[in-house]
Structure formats: structure tokens, C-alpha cells
Amino acid sequence: MSDPCDDLLQIHVNGEQTFFLSQKLRRIVEQQKRESQVSNSLIEIDGFPGGPHGFELVSRFCYNNGVVLITVPNVSLLYCCAAFLEMTEIASTVNLIHQTEVFLEGIFYWSWNEILTCLKNCEPFFDCASSCGLIEKLICSLLAKMAQNYDVNLFSLSSSSTSSSPEMTHSLSSQGVCENASLNRARAWWFQDLTILGPKIIEQFLKALGCYGTENNNLIVTRFLIHYLKTTLHSNYRKSLVLADYTGLADTAAYGVVLTGKTVFSCRGLFSVLRIVSRFGLSRIYRTGLERLIGSMLDQATLDDLLVSSGGDSGRGVYDVNFVLRLIGLFVHNDDKVSSRNMKKVGELIDMYLAEIGPDQNLKISKFLGVAESLPDYARDSYDYVYRAIDIYLESHPALSLEDRSRLCRCLNYKKLSLEACKDLAKNPRIPPRAAIDALASQHPTIQTAQEFVCDDGSSPSNINDYQIVLYRNEDSDSKSVSEGEEMKVNMERMQWKVVELEKVCREMKGQMARMAKLDEPQDNWPLPRLC
């Protein structure tokens, strides 16, 4: 008997490792070399299942007279290697395919964890395992295990005429799913277990259920996908993930959520779903569907919901303002279906959002104004918070021109500013003088002629000393609850307070006009009258 190390042949498997085969296999290899006209003794095998480890297992089978220990952890690799090498009965009566198939016949007696382990082991050579039908067998067995632990009304297996084989004809029944969401969540014991599987296997799992893509009408499957994608984002291996492999799963989850709509998911839940699926390259059509659903429920949103990151692009700002603008547009588009109360709730929410995004140095004035002017006027009873947000924006953007500052102030409804806000606006050096005067005029209609102090030619009227202030007061039904003397006292106090305020306004305007006449400054550079 010759030494097995004599006359050795080198074989590279997937370019990773060199194996040495003795004369027993050399005849087969030499025939292959002659057919391919390769003159050297180096044979490369690409795409071999399991790489060097798989080739080593097959070699042991060959050198051990067709005997190898087949176990649950290695049966998937042995089966795929045998299929790759076409080790059928044609080659030998003692063949590896037959032995692995016999072992797989007992798959329905395996435990749940054994099936998951075997599926997980198929991931490195998924294409080969799928083409030879192994993935199909394992998923079929997995569904059978799941069905054994489910109420038949909630999770049933039925035949499908579209399946490629009888083993792939199982599907989830959606009957009764929407009737009790909490019960469904409690029964979904398999959610966490399946998170160990890769996206390609999960995709095949969904196709076996008839719940992939636009076929997904099952709430349990939708909840599982959301859980699966969320777990994937939080996994330790997320940096090495190819997120594009998960796009189909994200689309399927989004479709299921949109199909279910408001009946199951809260507004905050929808925001959470959108955040998760958007990380996996969600298709535009499904993103639009989710945004339309969220937009119709915007009155239920909170400030935290709207603070969505722009994705780290410093040029776009800290927050995704375009996303919020789209939501507002969708909400306002249904104006005829939105109550005044809900519209005002959104108005309060957007005012808080404006104050939050105002300090962003990269936020363009057009975006800020777009948000501020996105709602109808009746959405706000007061514009005080809009003014506060504008002030924050101006403070964070000191280089804005007078024209831009004036543009910002034009989105204010001065008639809906409180007296305190109006006084603060008039004293604010960041507010253009014309805007301050307009705000004061809206608060005190009887001093409308005060704007004459700022004439186009820079002159002031000659009848300043003759300027009179007239106060009006509407009588109401308060006399029914207070005595006549008390009512008169209250009215006098109110009138005295208003007279003092207006006298201060007039004195300051006179002083400002005198200084402006001396300095002879252009109109745009006149300082702002200050109010006490």
C-alpha cells in the first residue's frame, strides 16, 4: 500500500485553505483537469458550502468508507455539500445525500430549539440551502411547532394553491386577530426566538405564511416584524449589517401597519414604527402611507414625537423639519374633517416645536417661516409663543438682515398678542422698528396716529402737544354682581392705568423723534421706542 502522502494534489477551497488529497480522489480530479485543460495541479473550488470546514467534513466521509456522524448542528452543512458535489446514488450506493435525507426525515420530531439551530446554521450558505429545498423543509417544521402552541382561531395552518410544494402551504389565519391585540401579544412567545435568524430566512418564513409584502394582512406578523427590526437595530452586530437586506421586511411591516391603521396603533406607536423602519431604507410609497396616517392623528402627537433627527447631516440642521412640514400639510389638508379644538391643539404643539428648533444655527429662515405659517390663523388664540420662538431664532441668528427680520415678524398676528408680549416686542432691539410700531398700534387703536411720528420724510407733526388720548370702555353685566360704587372704582383704576401707559408711550415717542431729528439718520436705522 502506498503512502497516502505520496504524489499529493493541492486544492484551494474558496481561496481560504489548502487541502491535500491522496491518489484515491486524484483520478476524478485529473479527469476534471483534462476537460478544463488545466496544466498545473492546483484546483480551486468557489462557492463551496461551508468553505474549508464543509470540504473537510466531506473528505472525512470519503476516507471513512462512507461513514460520518450526522447531528442536528452539522446536517444542514453536510446536506448542502452533498448536493453541491452531486453525491447521489449515481456516484455510489453509499452516498451522503441519502444519509442526510434519512436523518432529516425525523425533523418533525426535533425540538423547537433544534430547528432554530439548524436554520441559523444555513445562513452562511443560504443560497445553496434554499435551492436544494432545505430551508423549505425547516420552515415547514417550524410552522408546525408554532401551530401546536396556538389557539386554532388565532393561528391556523391552511393550504395555498400558490405554494411550490405541500410543505410550503401553511399560512397564518388573520381571523380574529384585530379583535384582541393584547391577547395576540401575549401569545406571540416566538418573537424573541426568531430574532436570531437572518433577514433572508425571515423573508422565506413570511412567504411561507403568505404574509410578505402586500400580502401581509396579519397583525401578529406585523408586530413580530416591528419587534424583529427593533431588536436588529439594538444588536451588538448592527455595524456589520447590510441594511438593504432588511428593506423588504421593513416594507412588509409598514404595509401591515398602514392596513391596520388607527384601530390598533396609537399616534406615538406610529411615530415609533416610522423611526424603526426608516433605518432600513423604507420604500417611498410605504413611508408616504405611514406619514399620511400619522398626519391624520397629529393632534395626538407630543413634542418628543416631532423631534426627529435629520440623520447627522449638519447642513440640514439638527431636526428633520421637512418631515414635520409634511405632517402639518397632511393634517391641514383634512381641514374640513378637523374640529376647531383639535386644530388649536396642533397650534400649541407647533408653537412649542418652533421654540425647540429656533436655536438651530443651520435652520434656514424659509424652513422656520414654513412651519410658523403652516397653520390657519384660527389654530391660535394667541401668538405670544410664536413671538417667543421668533425671538429665540433672532437671538441665535444675529447676522440676519433687516429684511429677513421683517419677514419673520410678518407671520405674527399683532391683534392676538397679549399686552405683555407686545410691550416686550416693542422694547426688543432685535425686532425691526416698523414691526414694533405696528404691534403697538394694534394694541392701542386710539393712538393709530402715533405712526405719524415716523413720516417718510423724517419730519414730525407740529401738533404733538395737541395730541389727545381717548379711552373707551364697554359696559357689561358686571353691575349685576357688584355695587355701583365698587364698579366705578374698578373702572377708574383701569382708566388711570391705561392713561399712564399711553402717556409714557407718547413721551418716549417725542424724545425719540427729537433725537432722530438731530442725528438725521435714515429711516431704517432709527432706534426703537422703548416702553416702560
From TrEMBL:
Keywords: Ubl conjugation pathway
Domain NPH3: 188-446
Lineage: superkingdom: Eukaryota
InterPro entries named among the record's database cross-references: NPH3/RPT2-like, NPH3_dom
PANTHER family associated with the record: OS12G0117600 PROTEIN (PTHR32370)
Family: Belongs to the NPH3 family.
Designated name of the protein: NPH3 domain-containing protein
Organism: Castilleja foliolosa
